[in-house]
Amino acid sequence: MTAYLYAFWKVGTSFPILSGKHGIVFLEQCIGRIGVVGVTIMAFLSGFGAVNYPYSCMTYFALSVSNSEIRTAERRLLQTVDMILVKRRRLAQFQFEARMKRTTNEKSNTFWNMLRTVGMSISSPRIDEKLLKHERTTNEKSNTFWNMLRTVGMSISSPRIDEKLLKHEISVLEDLSRQLFLELHYLRTAQERIEFSKTWKGKYFNCLGYFFCGYCCWKIFISIVNILLNRFGGQDPITRFMGITIHYLGFQIDVKFWSQQISFWLVGIIVVTSIRGLLITLTKFFHAIASTKSSNIIVLIIAQIMGTYFVSSVLLLRMNMTAEYRNMLNQVLGDLQFHFYHRWFDVIFLISAMCSIAFLYLAHKRVAEIKDDYIS
């Protein structure tokens, strides 16, 4: 706990979260540090989502997979599984035979030793100790000799089955089966994606994919411009859009009043829907790892994540509000460097988007190579 609080407090020394006129106010200090962590997480997730959603929804990136390729992949997987079963059966049979032979040898040695001991006790009740040691040494040598002969006979009469070699072959085949299963899963997923894109719902998501693809390109371009030119947003998008629309269409509308109302409701909807989506995702994740002992810890983690997410959302959505609401928000949050958070969001968003593009490109290339392998 002490290490966590120390690391949390050190965040403020590495980032310009407060202006130079601030005092030693505990609330502003905490909000600034929470904002850095939350904005970093939000920017990373936003960058990945802005790239992954168009890729997963647009039919342009989907690969066409035929039923013959699926059947070929299934046949390879079944053949590999059959080979694993055969080798496992041979290994089990070999281990069983070796265990039975060891048991038989132990019983035969015990029986002959008992007979030898009884015969010696009947013929000579009193035997000198040196003679006993000599006979015991002779018996051990003879047993060793007969055991060597028995081992040679077993190796000649039965086929040589190396247990280590069998285990190695089984391990290699199991790795191959896992790889073939993943390849089959990739092909089936691609086929299901093509079939889903032919439905009305798939066409709707395809249109959304094109829209978000354009948004992703625009957001990446704007982030690069903001970083290079050290630019920050001024007028909120609602007021800008309404001003352009009224200018070209000639409507007589109170832009200031309606832009304030629409911005307020739009920001509220964005906050509610984003928090709802985050809650659903966290619920699914923690449901998979939850137990009776970790329930209290999970509740605390969810509460901390939700608080961080909410504060970060308010810091970022401030730019989408009008000047009146921005001033109100400034009075509540304190003297924070809001421009830093927007610039930091652009930097992390750009890094996350570029890494996501590279990752999805490699994954798409891998699936295409698997498909070409089954075609050839």
UniProtKB/TrEMBL annotation:
GO CC annotation terms, alphabetical: Golgi cisterna membrane
Record domain Abscisic acid G-protein coupled receptor-like: where: 196-365
Stretches assigned to the Golgi pH regulator conserved domain: 26-91
Catalysed reactions, as listed in the record: iodide(out) = iodide(in); fluoride(in) = fluoride(out); bromide(in) = bromide(out)
Pfam families: ABA_GPCR, GPHR_N
Gene Ontology terms describing biological process: intracellular pH reduction
Superkingdom as given in the UniProt entry: Eukaryota
Bilayer topology annotation: Multi-pass membrane protein
InterPro entries: ABA_GPCR_dom, Golgi_pH-regulator_cons_dom, GPHR/GTG
Residue spans crossing the bilayer: 208-229, 264-285, 297-321, 341-362
The entry's keywords: Membrane, Transmembrane, Transmembrane helix
Coiled coil: none
Record-level Gene Ontology MF annotations: voltage-gated monoatomic anion channel activity
Location of the protein in the cell: Membrane
Family note: Belongs to the Golgi pH regulator (TC 1.A.38) family.
Stated name of the protein: Golgi pH regulator
UniProt lineage: Eukaryota, Metazoa, Spiralia, Lophotrochozoa, Platyhelminthes
